Amino acid sequence: xxxxxxxxxxxxxxxxxxxxxxxxxxxxxxxxxxxxxxxxxxxxxxxxxxxxxxxxxxxxxxxxxxxxxxxxxxxxxxxxxxxxxxxxxxxxxxxxxxxxxxxxxxxxxxxxxxxxxxxxxxxxxxxxxxxxxxxxxxxxxxxxxxxxxxxxxxxxxxxxxxxxxxxxxxxxxxxxxxxxxxxxxxxxxxxxxxxxxxxxxxxxxxxxxxxxxxxxxxxxxxxxxxxxxxxxxxxxxxxxxxxxxxxxxxxxxxxxxxxxxxxxxxxxxxxxxxxxxxxxxxxxxxxxxxxxxxxxxxxxxxxxxxxxxxxxxxxxxxxxxxxxxxxxxxxxxxxxxxxxxxxxxxxxxxxxxxxxxxxxxxxxxxxxxxxxxxxxxxxxxxxxxxxxxxxxxxxxxxxxxxxxxxxxxxxxxxxx
Amino acid sequence: xxxxxxxxxxxxxxxxxxxxxxxxxxxxxxxxxxxxxxxxxxxxxxxxxxxxxxxxxxxxxxxxxxxxxxxxxxxxxxxxxxxxxxxxxxxxxxxxxxxxxxxxxxxxxxxxxxxxxxxxxxxxxxxxxxxxxxxxxxxxxxxxxxxxxxxxxxxxxxxxxxxxxxxxxxxxxxxxxxxxxxxxxxxxxxxxxxxxxxxxxxxxxxxxxxxxxxxxxxxxxxxxxxxxxxxxxxxxxxxxxxxxxxxxxxxxxxxxxxxxxxxxxxxxxxxxxxxxxxxxxxxxxxxxxxxxxxxxxxxxxxxxxxxxxxxxxxxxxxxxxxxxxxxxxxxxxxxxxxxxxxxxxxxxxxxxxxxxxxxxxxxxxxxxxxxxxxxxxxxxxxxxxxxxxxxxxxxxxxxxxxxxxxxxxxxxxxxx
Amino acid sequence: xxxxxxxxxxxxxxxxxxxxxxxxxxxxxxxxxxxxxxxxxxxxxxxxxxxxxxxxxxxxxxxxxxxxxxxxxxxxxxxxxxxxxxxxxxxxxxxxxxxxxxxxxxxxxxxxxxxxxxxxxxxxxxxxxxxxxxxxxxxxxxxxxxxxxxxxxxxxxxxxxxxxxxxxxxxxxxxxxxxxxxxxxxxxxxxxxxxxxxxxxxxxxxxxxxxxxxxxxxxxxxxxxxxxxxxxxxxxxxxxxxxxxxxxxxxxxxxxxxxxxxxxxxxxxxxxxxxxxxxxxxxxxxxxxxxxxxxxxxxxxxxxxxxxxxxxxxxxxxxxxxxxxxxxxxxxxxxxxxxxxxxxxxxxxxxxxxxxxxxxxxxxxxxxxxxxxxxxxxxxxxxxxxxxxxxxxxxxxxxxxxxxxxxxxxxxxxxx
Amino acid sequence: xxxxxxxxxxxxxxxxxxxxxxxxxxxxxxxxxxxxxxxxxxxxxxxxxxxxxxxxxxxxxxxxxxxxxxxxxxxxxxxxxxxxxxxxxxxxxxxxxxxxxxxxxxxxxxxxxxxxxxxxxxxxxxxxxxxxxxxxxxxxxxxxxxxxxxxxxxxxxxxxxxxxxxxxxxxxxxxxxxxxxxxxxxxxxxxxxxxxxxxxxxxxxxxxxxxxxxxxxxxxxxxxxxxxxxxxxxxxxxxxxxxxxxxxxxxxxxxxxxxxxxxxxxxxxxxxxxxxxxxxxxxxxxxxxxxxxxxxxxxxxxxxxxxxxxxxxxxxxxxxxxxxxxxxxxxxxxxxxxxxxxxxxxxxxxxxxxxxxxxxxxxxxxxxxxxxxxxxxxxxxxxxxxxxxxxxxxxxxxxxxxxxxxxxxxxxxxxx
Lengths: 416, 416, 416, 416
Prior knowledge:
The structure is a homotetramer. By secondary structure, chain A is an alpha+beta fold. Chain A folds into two domains: 8-224 and 369-389, Hypothetical protein af1432, CATH 1.10.3210.10; 226-358 and 401-410, Growth Hormone, Chain: A (Up-down Bundle), CATH 1.20.1250.30. Chain A has 21 helices and nine strands. Chain A has helices spanning 22-29, 31-34, 56-76, 83-95, 104-107, 117-131, 137-143, 150-156, 162-175, 184-189, 205-223, 226-246, 255-262, 267-272, 275-282, 285-295, 301-311, 327-341, 360-363, 382-385, 407-410, and strands at 8-11, 15-18, 191-194, 197-201, 317-321, 353-358, 371-373, 379-381, 399-405. In chain A, the strands form three sheets. Chain A has a four-stranded mixed β-sheet. Chain A has a three-stranded antiparallel β-sheet with strand order 5-9-6, sandwiched between helices. A two-stranded antiparallel ribbon of chain A has the order 1-2. The longest helix of chain A is centred in the N-terminal third of the chain and has 21 residues, at 56-76. The relative contact order of chain A is 0.11. Chains in contact: A-B, A-C, A-D, B-C, B-D, C-D.
């Protein structure tokens, strides 16, 4: 009684997506995977782009679809890829985001210390592999970059991986920021493999340039939009406050969230027992929202005000600049805020704070550049191949400083 | 210090949406309105169409944008519309969905009896009107159909209102079901007013036909898709079970949900005190999800199994037909299910049940037909004006019967 | 030295189109095929829809792409299709429009009598087959419906063939009439073969309904749009006048057009010698336009006025109704026109004339209905399977009467 | 009896385009304007991108639509613009391409020497102005940059004018090269006026960068695509050959083309008499095509071979590089070609030739850079404001060298 699991998924971005193999279907059906339906891809970005409510579930299914296309292109170009490798690469991209928690880019590091979302992804994969009798082992190898054919890993995680190609296009689509649209079809058509490395054929240079520019636009227009960052940092402060309170007094939370607030969870909790992972597997956006709503009428003024303002989108003011903010100015604003809201020196730090933001999450920890395969057969880095001299600056980490404080203080402020 | 509230909202469906007046902005900023960000437009439809995670917030902002266009078209055709009427009509459509609760089409009637979501919308509007010093009174009049210029109400609620024009297009966009796409631009261009009634000019007939067909496709392909209905009915059973349990034993719920589970809430609770409305204003999708996750490990087997299966998308089988299901067959399946899962006669009803579904929610309670304004100045109903003889059957309520039971029973079943 | 002819064509409608085999490439490269680049798909429709300048070339390449998809779907559903059949079906659709001349829907029958464009397509195919050493024979068999597997022919020419699926979508795309958009992807996904016949699976019913409605919208909104018809009938009158003049006096024409104006060409000229076919192979839109421009300053007042007005889009008035026009009215208008322009009784017939138009070109001569494959395995015609009772009226030939006369006469006219 | 000329044009790119004033309608109706329907926007680009058959007519109507939007945005930002200025700017952009002849980018300079297409546009405008009793004088002033409010001219012709915004988007749409898509909506929303100059607000920087990249992509991927350039240069050679022949022997041409082939037309013919302008007004793509087809069987071997190959898309080989081609190599190829085709030294130059191509047509002769209006009120050039250091190189003229010769010679060639 083997069920035919060749399914079709309707996707607004690509149209129909085929599930080409039972193993793909089985992973999608796994509870750890279904959980991604309950985690929005872009956290609080829908506060600025109301359409951007899409989930990590859609993203990874989309990225898997692009992987399918990319492998077809390579096959067409006579690169031999076995069935195991084919499904392995698709599984690796399908599962690469399993370890994300709610509002991940903001809250990564809050729930557990010393363990990245990639580490957690891997723990989930290993669990799923147990449940599926080791059928996804090749996928895990590729994900871990232990598989000998390195270009497969580059398709999962690299400067031009299917992750990025999907999220730029998808985030663009749902946010309505058309500048982020990239010609993922064309980039994929230009992929090739040379000496076991993923390369882009020469005539794809322009598309790669456009991709880099589009990514840059998406950082500053969507991912790191001032209002989005303000909302996300408020959320972080809320959870820090809740954690502070809960050490002394119980407040309403969902049980899974309670676990991560009450205890100081580190890598060891994930690796030495299964409890942390099990609790993490339960956690999603609804834990945060359901708790926030309750906290908005909590007796703790700091907690309740922050929650109420975040829920009602009555956000704090955010200033942004390339240099650190002047300490005198910060303490001036802090003092005014403390007075205005009758807050102690300790508590006012939840209302006024400075932070650094960067596009790091999107750019670093990915080893190499983008290799262009010239018509004469040579390889050249995009930095040399493009005649935009500093094209690679587009990939660099840009750090900016932000200062956050209640809007009420703004009008009182004397600009220095 | 009057703030300029002329804002622009990025919408993936229409591009840029202008907020043309402070009063529109003020309503959007109200907490009762912001709450709509936390309620998905299509409930559990994203179980079939993963992109369909858009919210009621986006929908009503989009519908208000269409209203803006429609009023511009009428103005171009020399229909006099005052500023108050203009903003009134926009406010009416903006607020018409305020009374929706989480998973509304399924759960309407579950939280409170004897009161519709339109009634609750009105209660919310009146509260907002108090907060805004009566500045939205004309909008409320138009919503209630008490305003003398009847065509304005028809634009809010009628056979061709801006609500429908937006949701068909938007649901189509996010689900990826291109058959639901309608030429809302063209229909709007064809609108006119004759004798105080909204009419469509003759050359718009084909577009109206296409609109009716597209709506029909969306019912059966999206809104009433088998899998979606199965998931939604499972959700309803879950909440019924939780309500049953909670009368005797406390289980984890968010406080707002607790209020509606523990108590039997009716219209009078909404109208005679403010508590019900306040609790309802807190309720959103996250209350349901956060509770479901906890219940999936509850000691009550019925509750936990239903929750686990719904969360993991391991749904019950749903059969659908035009006639009621045969009683013998139902009791046969019921018996087998009870045996298989060791359930009592009472409890098995949560696993096997029949129900009626219809497209009623989308078609009825809207007074009149669609009037076509012929070139010679006469009015004719679309039923006469179209040469598809029974075009109006497309608007009729279609009732179908569904039978739901665990998939495990399927293979045991002897088909009659 | 075998050249790799696997090419990719950029198509704005479908994105990238693969040319999967050398034989497809060879046919596309043939001069008879390249000629289709010079014939617009929609004749004078760009007078109303300026974007609709796409050519027959693009259309047939697009239809071939859909054929490719459809055959993939059938293969996925375990219908055995050999390589010869695969390419045969693709070639048949690729070449099915070879016999179209310039402004085909209007001028069909003008250049040659007793021979249809399908007949001419076949003659061209046979020539190409000679040039390609018989490699397209299977394609010709399928085109002629002589091939035993009948469903292949149905994909080329039937109620739901790839021709229609492409032209509706493409004409919609280029004209900007979004109501004509069809979900061709979904229809193709629903195709199947039962007893050697092409069928649509039950859940495709709604898409088929939408397709029929969309087709109807395209007839009346684009193909038979009043202004388009007026322009096309003026073009026909121009060529009739030119033919009349050229019997007595030489006027400027391109040589190929001259051949068809000066001589009375019938089927026998095509079949018994090669001259007619050769001349026809030269003829395209540019012959018409180049001649018209010259004629617009011809000494013959009828010819020059008609040409000048058509070129400048200063079109005659067109009235349309379901019944024949009243003879008295026509003769009244005729008389007034003759007076106003000082025209003889003979010549005025080029300025005032009545005609019939119908959607015939799009609907008839295609044998059968659309078969729906019910879930229980039975076949049913869409007419029975759809619950829109008279859905098939959408496919019927509708005849309308038009009356054309100069706008100058309009104001003088007393309406009866 | 004033006719209401408020019309709506269906455009596949923008949807509905309103004609907001009679004077716009009157210009569109003028024969000199209607002629643009018969000139393709991208010449022979449809040889590579079959969808790119759109005309100059659509382009200028689209650009006028963008002008309308841009003026609305400026009005919203409190820039006073009178009705005359409003329609003036729209008329200027509407008419700016009137002076283009067939296959303009290739053949500019062939038909007449010492006069640019802008000069001819102006001559046409002046004629139209006479016909319309001086009602478009302000538009002409703006076009000529004689109108005091300089930003209006910048909207017509500048680094970020409505011409470019439309053609990039439109050419992208019709060619299917999605990398060329630009967020014209967002750029327009960011426009402002400062000190009588058109500026872009700071937050529009990313969109401007994307615009510059997209433009660059379109040059090399579409406008200067190798195959397109090969075809266009072959066309130029054909016309040069025809001109050479026609000095001694009459060959078939349309009369308008004959005028420009037989005579050596210069600026003075356009300015001192009306004949040249009248003949030019007749000339369009059909003259070229109709003549080419006839010439393809001419007795002159050079002419007939070139024509046949161009018509059948059997194009010459084109090599491209940054440096001039080696003279020895060219003479080697020339010699081989002369032998292979039995051509004289004179005639072989039509088969083998080198040329320079550049993106000049799209970049130069536009005075100034793009000014960014910083949040602090200062102006800065995009070159400083962008942190892509050499962003302006994107606008520089890039010169490349091409070498063209028959494919037959390729295989014989020894690569150096």
